[in-house]
């Protein structure tokens, strides 16, 4: 079947070439394909959540739209801008690594991390607020009347004051509210649960990204990359853009859902 | 590279009696660390082999408990709760901890780079990570079993699993999540390896059929597994936080879980069976000394089966009250999987036709495989026929059908592969007599165990029953008796293969006279870096010619 | 039961011979194919065994006519199976219009059955011979599956929704009911018996110890749950008149809070009525405000079936007058769970 032929191993002279690859080009192609395959897996990983979201979005559309209005569109929009900015810095990092500007590559990568941290910082305050008004799964998960009141106070007084008994908030199981309130709370809880799962899974991907970008930035400063060898920068770029794109889907699905109703 | 050579040099000095031999991947370094930190695909394959064998024994013990209980109609051996936990443990261990990693992770890891003339898989470190994720997942699974087990059945149907079960479902879900990522990373590694690591001249249509099958399998692992991972994650979240994604009492939809579960778990069947199909093509061709009939069709049928596997999932749900039109579409699509599977059986027969067949142990397993896979395949038609599935769904007919596929197909395929590559893996031969005897006992025991279950199923005995009506006892006793024979059959290979590993006769480079690179271009066992020179392929596989006879060293 | 060995369970419904005929066809074809494969496998193994170590056969690369044959013949067989299977399946899923209704609620681990006449049974089902019977099935907790092998029918009981199945018994006798979907510890004890009786015996059984009719119990609930307050059927009504709406196409205006196009209609079957009681917002009748509270948690699955049975029976002008002395919903919940109130 085969003829054995002397082939030049051709490695050992380049420290960036792993021993089982023949050429840098082969290694580059393998790594890039690997990342694309990984992103394909990620699409289906998030896809499960998107499928669940679609089913309940259709089933409980009215409550989902109303529930969406309790999220903070401004913070969401700011975060979208920050994240798109980080994609730009990432793209510039990749470009600079291709051109061989190692220090600039490092700078842009660090800036990407800073933007990403900014995103998570905003997210922290948003989650904190969500937690305070019981939008987060956990103890006293979602009390519809309470959350509505909090939103009302926020719109009217432009403050984040939390409602108390003095605001006349009734518990969902208060008999005078009927069972409807309880039921709508249940459906809205599904929305917030999906919101929580999707955004935290997204955030987890960002945190993992920070670690990898950090290592690659350090390598860039040490001058590892050259126009011949910039694969790690390119594949972390692919990953980062994917994380960005997921958010581009999450933002309208979670935040803008009820906005057209004029709330 | 230089490090490897250094290490092997050191071992040479220490192992004086092996100085005259070339170092191979097994003996170039004997330290425990060299195994635990190994990046060598062959060693990782061995790690998997040892782990899944342990899992198989454990799963087998669980099956034994189930069969002993079912030998009488009354629940007199185990309590209902223990029985439920036993069959759940049997299902989870055998499917997730044994079958899914069996051929892909053991045979795939060992043989894939050898067969395509690569020095390793594309991402050796990722490969080791896959193994440790598998070990972690299996460990967590064992913790769940030790603490009291899981009683939901391996399908984890909601709302039972999400709300009503008081067992360790969440812990098991975490374990399976880890196993899922192990499987994804293995699939990713193999896809990239097949695409980018083939040696010069090895074009797609010169690939051995096992590689085609592993490739199709890896794509399924890559695309299906993340869905089960997120589904189990949601199940865990639902149990931990008390919210109801799948619980109708809290606004959720239990049938959504089934859709998401089967979107993975049906393709998962192909993760288990496709590599077997490819492997059997290798075995049949080698032991018939004939090229595989209709090579391209059989290669593409693997890919077709993988693709169709993704669009038939709802045939597990015909009785849930899904729309009758959906049921018809899924029934039709299911039938369309039967065609490529049928083609494979016929092409194997055509490969044997006018061949020069010899009957060493792998071929005995290969022939047994074709027979049992045919029975498993045609009984699948009973279940895809809508009018019959309503009656047969969730009965022992289904149990018998998928055991014919999983055991008769996947496990016999695994055994065929293990006996086929054993000389390559260990460099030693095993006793062909004991091998054939084991294969014969497994074949007989298997049929005794599972054939009566087809009849039990048509008579209406539901799955997962701890007690059953007395008139069904005769068939159940037959089944339990068969399981005893099967257990003996499984024990034999454990004994004679262990014996062979230490004391077996030395195997030559290519004892079977096979034509693929793993046999023609590497030693038995292979050297740590597989090839002294990277081979160059100049023709299609399975070209058996007399001139080869000179090369074969017996 | 006798202990004679059999391959097929008893045939006791009109569907059973149909399913068995299909099975025999599938068995015949598949056994034929399997035997052919086995025969060729053994034949080739004997004929083409390796004669000497030097025996290298000529390669065969393919044979187009042969390949076409083994693609086409299985395809034809599969198409026949598919079409026949769909034909039998359509008989299994489509119940005759004149079917007698019986209601089944599964729970861990028993089957609770209600007849429209008010008879209730647990783990037992009495049906007349020769009349189509339609079971409407649901579950109170996990998924179960109602399975009668002698009738060759099976249907999952899914919590939160109604499913249905039908059969027409052909032979008086006692047949096994199983729960086919794994439902927890006592799954294998969730079994029962169907008793098929001659029509006369069945009528006698129905009248013996019959409680109030299902619809009558529903009528009581209709006032107790204060449905009557709004669905009063008169000029003061705040909600649609329910007289004669069962199995009619009625116009709706909103679906899940979203306006539907003008002229959208919905088929008012059992599932719709159940949904409207539990999720009043799901599909709102045209011309009415969505003011109805949900009754989730206020009515059990069995009570829902009774209310629906009542709505089904409600004809023109039959809505009862509102009783002034009806208790409030809060106290109903406790009362209705007490057995003694009937």
Q: Judging by the overall fold, what is the CATH architecture of chain B?
A: Up-down Bundle
State the name of the first-level CATH class of chain B. Answer: Mainly Alpha
Give Rg of chain A in angstroms: 24 Å
Q: Which class do the helix and strand fractions of chain A yield?
A: mainly alpha
- Named CATH topology of chain A: Four Helix Bundle (Hemerythrin (Met), subunit A)
State the distance separating the first and last CA atoms of chain A.
Answer: 72 Å
Please provide a written account of the structure.
The complex is a heterotrimer of chains A (263), B (554) and C (342). Chain A has 263 residues and is mainly alpha-helical. Helices cover 70% and strands 1% of the residues of chain A. Chain A has one domain (39-261): Up-down Bundle (Four Helix Bundle (Hemerythrin (Met), subunit A)), CATH 1.20.120.80. Chain A has helices at residues 24-59, 61-68, 73-99, 102-132, 144-157, 178-221, 231-255; one strand spanning 2-4. In chain A, helix 1 runs antiparallel to helix 6 and helix 3 runs antiparallel to helix 7. With 554 residues, chain B is an all-alpha fold. Chain B is built from 18 helices and 1 strand. Chain C has 342 residues and is an alpha+beta fold. Chain C has 8 helices and 14 strands. In chain C, the strands form 3 sheets. Chain C has a 5-stranded mixed sheet, with helices on one face. In chain C, strands 4-10-9-6-7 form a 5-stranded mixed sheet. In chain C, helix 1 packs antiparallel against helix 2 (64-93). The longest helix of chain C has 33 residues, at 15-47. Chain C starts with 14 loop residues before the first helix and ends in a 6-residue tail after the last helix. At the B-C interface, helix 4, helix 6, helix 9, helix 11 and helix 12 of B face helix 1, helix 2, strand 7 and strand 9 of C. Strand 1 of chain A pairs antiparallel with strand 1 of chain B, so a sheet runs across the interface.
Quick summary of this structure?
The complex is a heterotrimer of chains A (263), B (554) and C (342). Chain B has 554 residues and is mainly alpha-helical.
Walk me through the topology.
The complex is a heterotrimer of chains A (263), B (554) and C (342).
Chain A: E1 2-4, H1 24-59, H2 61-68, H3 73-99, H4 102-132, H5 144-157, H6 178-221, H7 231-255
Helix pairs in contact in A: 1-6, 1-7, 2-6, 3-4, 3-7, 4-6, 6-7
Chain B: H1 2-14, H2 32-36, H3 41-69, H4 80-115, H5 124-146, H6 160-164, H7 169-196, H8 209-241, H9 254-288, H10 295-309, H11 324-352, H12 361-384, H13 386-392, H14 396-426, H15 432-459, H16 473-503, H17 517-520, E1 535-537, H18 548-551
Helix pairs in contact in B: 3-4, 3-5, 3-16, 4-7, 4-8, 4-9, 4-14, 5-7, 7-8, 8-9, 8-10, 9-10, 9-11, 9-12, 9-14, 10-11, 11-12, 12-14, 12-15, 14-15, 15-16
Chain C: H1 15-47, H2 64-93, E1 100-107, E2 110-114, E3 120-122, E4 124-128, E5 132-139, E6 144-148, E7 153-157, E8 163-168, E9 173-179, E10 192-197, H3 199-207, H4 214-224, H5 227-230, E11 249-255, E12 258-259, E13 265-267, H6 270-278, E14 283-285, H7 301-313, H8 329-336
Parallel strand pairs in C: 1-5, 4-10
Antiparallel strand pairs in C: 1-2, 2-3, 5-8, 6-7, 6-9, 9-10, 11-12, 11-13, 11-14
Helix pairs in contact in C: 1-2, 4-7
